[in-house]
Amino acid sequence: MSTTTRDSACDASPAAAAAAPTSLADLCSMLHQELGDKGINEMAKIDVERIKSLMESYTSDCNDWTQFSHFDEGRYTRNLVDAGNGKFNLMILCWPANVKSPIHDHAGSHCLMKVLGGDLKESRYAWPGKMGPKALMPASLIPSVTASEPAQKEGAMNLTQETILHLDEVAYIHDKIGLHRISNPTGENSVSLHLYCPPYETCKTFDEKTSVARGSGRIVFFTEHGERKNSPCSSIMQ
User: Which of 27, 32, 35, 178 has the smallest CB count inside 10 Å?
Assistant: First the structure.
C-alpha cells in the first residue's frame, strides 16, 4: 500500500488558468459548456483531464456554497447543486467529524471530487477476487494512474493507497482504477464537491473484512438546489 499527501493544489493547465471560474455558479456554467450534449464517457482522455483542471482552477469560497451545505449528525449528506444536462450530476457532500463512506464502486461513472472545506482521506482498494469493472469506456481513455493494485487476498479487501486531500485539491476515480472510500479523519466538519458523469442511482458496496459485495439502495439527495427533501438521505454510498 502506498500513502501520499497533496500539500498544494495541482497546477491548472494554461487553458484552465485563462478561464478560471470565479464562483461556483460560474463553474456550473463552464461545466455545461464543456460537456455540451455529451458526457465524459463519449469524450477522450484529454477531455476528462480538462474537466479535472477546470475543477482545480475554481478557488473554494464558502459564500458560493453555504446554501448547499447541509449536515446531518452522524452521517454524510448528498446535496444536489446541478442536475447537469442529463449527462452529469454536480453535488456537495457534507462530512461530519470522523464519518466515512462504505467502500464502493461507481457503476461505470467518472467521479471527480474537490475539497471545499476541511480535509478528507481517500482510501483506494483493489477489486476483490475475480470481480472487476463492467460496461466501461476503453482503458485507453482513462487518465493514467500511478497507484499499483496488488493481487486481492482471500477475505479482507486489499487497501492499495491512501491520500489526504486538502482544501481545493481534486481527486479522480473510475472503476478501471479501483474502488474507494472517502472519510473525514478530523475532528472538524469537511465539505466536498463531486461531479459524477454519467449520473447513476445505484452502486455496489463492499464489506471491508469479507470483500462481500451487495447492491446499494437507490441513492437519494438530502437537499436539492438548497431545498430539503422529504425522503431521508441515503447513507449507502458516497
Answer: 32
